């Protein structure tokens, strides 16, 4: 009987269910479904049972144990996800569910599509071409690092550089490496460090994380900043299996931040050992070549003198031989000087030389600081004496010394005649000593003025 046909003969429940099973499973062999993961149960058998829902409906699903082991993304309940699977009808219950074989965050598909489109655009412009990539210098003066100031990537890079070449300074640009503002901040750091003439190589990267965590290094603004930077850039994003657009555009790609530090700087002790070996080999080689040249000149001289009178040309020949010997000696001296310069350049970058230079600078500053401090202290003492003189001039004790006195009733200062009455006990503070007196009479100011006029 075909689905949808009509017959007077009724179907059994099993027959109907089988027809439904054939229709549904045949029509939905591979389907993508997006929804909220509202329920997640990991059975002791290893299978995972889940529920997807939206505002209008829900559907149950199952991920078999063999599929669970292959999944890279393990979501939590409440996350918006997209699953791929096949519709399955369970006849004993007359229900259906989704057998899931892939799961990823919602929106990741759109991100991947945008990523592939950006890769095609940048590749067409030649940003991935090996011909445009710059050479990483063997011995950089300084190394720029663009990463999170609190992340493990910074600690790994600094540890490796200090172990391999402790004399090479590190210039850190503390960047946001995750979130909406990360791409713009990373691109800004590349532009800032790229303008510095003392930085010979830049490391851009961060530690591992999810696809969303590393997405800032897939942004176009970061890719173009790397491509336009005049300084060679090493990209070290995530782990060895992670590959971002910044890895494709950068001059070198490192699988980890620690590996990027190893690419950026050599091992100083190995370099010094190599230089010593080169000097020794070049010296032996030049000495051997000069000795061989001497022998060849002597052989030629003997051949030329045989049967021929070379007296008139002997002086000319001896001069030519002397010039050849001087040229050989000069070449040896120049090569030795050049190698000594390279060796001295490496040694001058050692922490000991830098510390000695800093100590000399500190001694100079101390010598300049002492006279300045003495001058400042003398000026401060002079200002202090001036302030003391002003304070003494304003002090009540100075007024007492000039013949004035201070009158108090108990602990209260008396300023007006109305504050005391006849019979009150008062104390009078003089320049030397204190008087205790009793008020016999109180006169207002205008009476005192009249009495003074009468006396005159």
Short description:
The chain is of the alpha/beta class and 456 residues long. The chain has 4 domains: 94 residues, Beta Barrel (OB fold (Dihydrolipoamide Acetyltransferase, E2P)); 157 residues, Succinyl-CoA synthetase domains (Rossmann fold), CATH 3.40.50.261; 80 residues; 55 residues, no CATH class.
Shape: flat
Instruction: Please tell me the CATH architecture of the largest domain by its name.
Output: 3-Layer(aba) Sandwich
| Spatial strand order of the main sheet | 1-2-3-5-4
The computed structural class is alpha/beta
Question: Main beta sheet, described?
Answer: 5 strands, mixed, barrel
Helix content: 40-55%
Please report which band the strand proportion falls in: under 5%, 5-15%, 15-25%, 25-35%, 35-45% or over 45%. 15-25%
CATH fourth-tier homologous superfamily of the largest domain: Succinyl-CoA synthetase domains
CATH class of the largest domain: Alpha Beta
Q: Mean pLDDT, nearest integer?
A: 82
**The CATH topology of the largest domain is what?**
Rossmann fold
Unreliably modeled segments: none
H-E order: HEEEHEEHEHEHEHEHEHHHHHEEEEH
Number of domains: 4
Which value, in Å, is the CA radius of gyration? 47 Å
Instruction: Please report the number of helical segments.
Output: 13
The total beta strand count reads 14
* N-C termini distance: 148 Å
Quaternary structure: single chain
């Amino acid at each position: 009987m075909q689905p949808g046909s009509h017959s007077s003969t009724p179907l059994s429940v099993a027959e109907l269910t089988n027809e439904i099973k054939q229709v549904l499973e045949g029509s939905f062999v591979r389907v993508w479904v997006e929804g909220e993961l509202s329920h997640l149960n990991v059975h002791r058998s290893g299978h995972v049972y889940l529920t997807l829902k939206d505002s209008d409906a829900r559907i149950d699903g199952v991920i078999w144990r063999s599929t669970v082991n292959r999944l890279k993304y393990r979501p939590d309940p409440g996350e918006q996800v997209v699953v791929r699977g096949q519709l399955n009808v369970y006849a004993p219950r007359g229900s259906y569910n989704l057998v899931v074989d892939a799961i990823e965050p919602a929106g990741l598909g759109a991100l991947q599509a945008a990523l592939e489109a950006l890769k095609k655009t940048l590749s067409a412009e030649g940003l991935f071409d090996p011909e445009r990539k710059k050479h990483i210098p063997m011995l950089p003066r300084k190394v720029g690092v663009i990463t999170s100031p609190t992340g493990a990537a910074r600690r790994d890079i600094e540890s490796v550089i200090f172990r391999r070449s402790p004399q090479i300074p590190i210039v850190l640009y503390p960047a946001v490496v995750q979130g909406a503002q990360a791409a713009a901040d990373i691109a800004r750091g590349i532009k800032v460090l790229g303008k510095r003439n003392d930085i010979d190589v830049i490391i851009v990267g961060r530690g591992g994380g999810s696809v969303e965590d590393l997405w800032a290094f897939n942004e176009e603004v970061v890719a173009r900043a790397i491509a336009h930077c005049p300084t060679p850039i090493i990209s070290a994003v995530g782990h060895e299996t992670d590959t971002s657009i910044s890895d494709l555009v950068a001059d070198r790609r490192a699988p980890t931040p620690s590996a990027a530090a190893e690419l950026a700087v050599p091992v100083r002790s190995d370099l010094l050992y190599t230089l010593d070996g080169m000097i020794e080999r070049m010296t032996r080689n030049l000495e051997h070549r000069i000795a061989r040249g001497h022998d060849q000149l002597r052989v030629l001289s003997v051949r030329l003198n045989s049967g021929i009178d070379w007296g008139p040309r002997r002086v000319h020949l001896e001069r030519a031989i002397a010039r050849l010997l001087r040229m050989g000696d000069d070449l040896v001296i120049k090569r030795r000087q050049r190698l000594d310069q390279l060796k001295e350049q490496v040694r001058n970058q050692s922490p000991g030389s830098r510390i000695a230079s800093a100590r000399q600078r500190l001694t100079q500053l101390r010598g300049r600081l002492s006279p300045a401090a003495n001058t400042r202290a003398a000026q401060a003492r002079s200002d202090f004496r001036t302030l003391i003189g002003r304070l003494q001039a304003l002090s009540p004790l100075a007024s007492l010394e000039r013949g004035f006195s201070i009158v108090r009733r108990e602990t209260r200062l008396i300023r007006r005649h109305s504050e005391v009455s006849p019979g009150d006990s008062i104390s009078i503070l003089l320049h030397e000593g204190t008087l205790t007196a009793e008020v016999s009479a109180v006169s207002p100011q205008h009476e005192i003025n009249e009495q003074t006029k009468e006396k005159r």
